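Late entry, iron/sulfur cluster complex.
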Amino acid sequence: MRSFSYQRAADAGAAVSALASSASDNNPLTLATAQPLAGGTTLIDLMKLDVMRPATVVDINALARSWSAIDLGGDNLRLGALAKMSDVAANPEIQRNYPIIANSLKLAASPQLRNMATLGGNVMQRTRCSYFRDISYENCNKRNPGSGCAAMDGFNRMHAVLGTSDQCIATYPGDFAQALVALDATVEITGKSGTRSLPFAQLHKPPGNSPEIETTLQPGELISAFAISGRWPRSVYLKARDRQSYEFALSSAAIALDVQDGVIRDARIALGGVATVPWRAREAEALLKGQQFDDSLARHAADAAFADAKGRRHNTYKIALGRRVVARALQQAVTMEI
Ligand code: FAD
Ligand code: SF4
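Prediction complete; structure with ligand written out below:
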């Protein structure tokens, strides 16, 4: 592991100025980059692998005093970015009103990791593409811009079928972000010039021609909170993976419904494990709205969700699997007791 300088920020102002003054930029490989440290379960891992090489690590855990609250006031939910995954997943109000959030967190990683890891760090985690994580492979446009992509013709069983580009087909690996996208969450961002909010769906960038730039965060900015309007008790997070625990999604669906007398009034669907960014399936949602639910409708919606999917040598199975996950998650959401 390379040497780096460690700073502990006492408050948000100190954290932002430490990050900004260390000439951070969006390319994690730039040696001058400063990176915030939350739970450290991604950052330290990637520093040990020599994939991320920050010159400065700014520990933001002291900010938890003001950035870790779980506030459910009226019909709005606000989650601090430094709230631990395990605390949010175990909160009875979240379980009752947002099962989609509780389950996306409960089904992620392991209990030990969830006790360390924060919501902000979770949405900022990096792809698990094995060519990205192993620096002995030179060809990785995300790690080494312009070098090519070893996964295109390599072992791409875990890679994306939606939102890919000629430059990168890496899957966005997290679970919680799908719940946020489905619920039209906003993300609150704190930087040198104060706080701004944007739709969470605009945080992650599809790879396009610059896969090394993964988010719209500006240098020195921190995620401080997530906000959700309305309560979504009829919601599910279904995750298919190689084993039942401690494993990333091969395909997942985050679904929130408003159903009255068997008719779907509103439908929100986001897909995980199959796309380069947390993926909203708007075509599927449009098919469902105003319709009486049955199995055939669920299958049509699932087909629509994957209409633009593009499989490669080892990952075409994700299209069939993803359709089944969406159809089953819809059935679960419609029939669940609330
Ligand atoms: P850190 O490691 O501290 O930070 C991660 C990144 O985010 C760093 O680049 C850091 O600089 C940046 N960052 C941290 N906080 C902020 C902030 N507030 N604003 C801006 N940038 C910030 N995740 C899943 O979703 N599903 C899984 O199934 C899953 N399985 C896993 C299995 C293993 C073996 C491991 C090691 C991890 C797994 N994870 C999984 C990932 C895990 O959930 C993340 O590592 C964790 O959520 C990251 O949170 P952290 O607080 O530890 O982040
Ligand atoms: Fe790198 Fe993306 Fe190709 Fe993986 S898929 S090797 S992250 S460019």
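The mean pLDDT is 95. Will revisit in the morning.
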